[in-house]
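Sequence, please.
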């Protein structure tokens, strides 16, 4: 058995720990050395430094320099930029000019959410922006606890592949303007090492460390434009509005410091976003939006985020005209997905509707509880530690905060393949609701925007 004394400590790292324990600032050179030698520094020293950072923080310059070094600790994606180009076969001869070709790229976009319940924004916003001429370059993750993962939602579609090679990823972006793949270990490997230790040492909740983790991967991913959806509330990773504001502002500053057009929206996650919660239901709601059949807070937030870099008019026109949905189908087909089999994959064997037994208004809807119920419904652990996913499982929220309900009307529906789980979830889900006889206001969706 290896003991701490058998793992050689680094004298340089000891000085960094002492520096941060005393609340002093690191130099650029120290942070560069730290990331360059991270693989050789024992876990216990890195963990000690992380705890010192968690307690005493990093200033803005330290955070920016740490992020830069983390971003360049591995592969950095260099996407092919296309300049605006107009080609005229008969320049100067108006009568015989028949062929004018315009190549136009509005920039490479990466959208990131800090996680929330019912958050299916990427599924709709990515193809929508691609339909407007932006290049969408995104790496996503799987489910983390009560918050769903974009990869899990996309894999609801039979055949859809997320294990793209870098060559396939870049080629697809050039050909159709959009590619989404599983998070790659090639990008920002220093972040992977630090995050693993943060997760095991109760040092995840550090704003500078969260910001550097997120932004290092965005820099390495090769985007020009970064859209950040920082969620705050009961169903979000960030519960406190003040802390969420600090995180949003810091990530925008980091992006600006490295020349990226970085914008953040601070959005409400005290109730689930949209009507659907669960892998299959959320995918179906995203498709419904792209088909022009969605009019709720999910639609509003998609437009809000998209309007950070495009006009509201062209966003709504892309949905109304069907351009966004065509791009979605093109994207899914390019990554092997078979939408003709989606209905079969998302059709639940069991559904229970919960109906109101009195008139009133929805006063509260606990996003965290709904997210936990959806996760329990959709994921079953296997003996080997992996899990089996029921892609049909989830909830449809017919009534949300501020909505009026009448006796006999459906408040929510629960669905899935496992009858016992569905019935148990229906009994538990009503506990996420708080009702009032008095009319209640609909909550604010967006608190603030930063750019």
């Amino acid at each position: 058995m290896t003991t701490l004394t058998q793992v050689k400590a680094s004298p340089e790292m000891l000085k960094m720990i002492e520096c941060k324990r005393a609340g002093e600032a690191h130099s650029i050179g120290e942070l560069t050395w730290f990331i360059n030698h991270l693989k050789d520094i024992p876990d216990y020293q890195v963990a000690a430094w992380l705890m010192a950072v968690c307690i005493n923080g990093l200033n803005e310059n330290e955070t920016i320099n740490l992020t830069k070094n983390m971003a360049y600790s591995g592969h950095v994606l260099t996407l092919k930029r296309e300049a605006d180009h107009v080609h005229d076969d008969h320049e100067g001869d108006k009568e015989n000019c028949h062929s004018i070709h315009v190549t136009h790229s509005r920039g490479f976009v990466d959208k990131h959410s800090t996680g929330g319940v019912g958050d299916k924004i990427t599924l709709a916003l990515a193809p929508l922006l691609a339909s407007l001429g932006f290049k969408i370059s995104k790496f996503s993750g799987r489910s983390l606890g009560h918050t769903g993962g974009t990869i899990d939602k996309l894999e609801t579609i039979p055949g859809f592949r997320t294990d793209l090679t870098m060559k396939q990823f870049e080629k697809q972006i050039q050909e159709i303007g959009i590619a989404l793949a599983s998070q790659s270990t090639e990008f920002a490997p220093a972040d992977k090492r630090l995050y693993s230790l943060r997760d095991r040492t109760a040092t995840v909740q550090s704003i500078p460390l969260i910001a550097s983790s997120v932004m290092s991967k965005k820099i390495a991913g090769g985007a020009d434009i970064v859209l950040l959806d920082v969620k705050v509330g009961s169903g979000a990773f960030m519960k406190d509005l003040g802390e969420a504001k600090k995180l949003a502002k810091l990530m925008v500053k980091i992006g600006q410091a490295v020349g990226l057009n970085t914008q953040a929206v601070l959005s409400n996650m005290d109730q689930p976003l949209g009507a659907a919660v669960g892998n299959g239901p959320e995918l179906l709601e995203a498709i419904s939006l792209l088909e022009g059949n969605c009019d709720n807070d999910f639609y509003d937030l998609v437009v809000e985020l998209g309007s950070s870099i495009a006009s509201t008019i062209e966003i709504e026109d892309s949905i109304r005209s069907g351009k966004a949905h065509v791009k979605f189908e093109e994207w899914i087909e390019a990554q092997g997905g078979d939408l003709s089999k989606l209905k079969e994959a998302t059709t639940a064997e069991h559904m229970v509707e919960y109906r109101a037994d009195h008139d009133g208004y929805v006063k509260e809807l606990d996003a965290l509880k709904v997210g936990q119920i959806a996760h329990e419904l959709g994921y079953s652990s296997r003996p080997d530690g992996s899990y089996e996913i029921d892609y049909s499982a989830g909830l449809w929220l017919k009534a949300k905060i501020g909505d009026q309900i009448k006796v006999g009307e459906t408040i929510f529906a629960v669905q899935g393949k496992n009858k016992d789980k569905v019935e148990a979830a229906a009994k538990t889900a009503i506990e996420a609701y708080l009702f009032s006889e008095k009319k209640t206001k609909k909550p604010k969706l967006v608190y603030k925007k930063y750019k």
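The first helix runs from residue 11 to 21.
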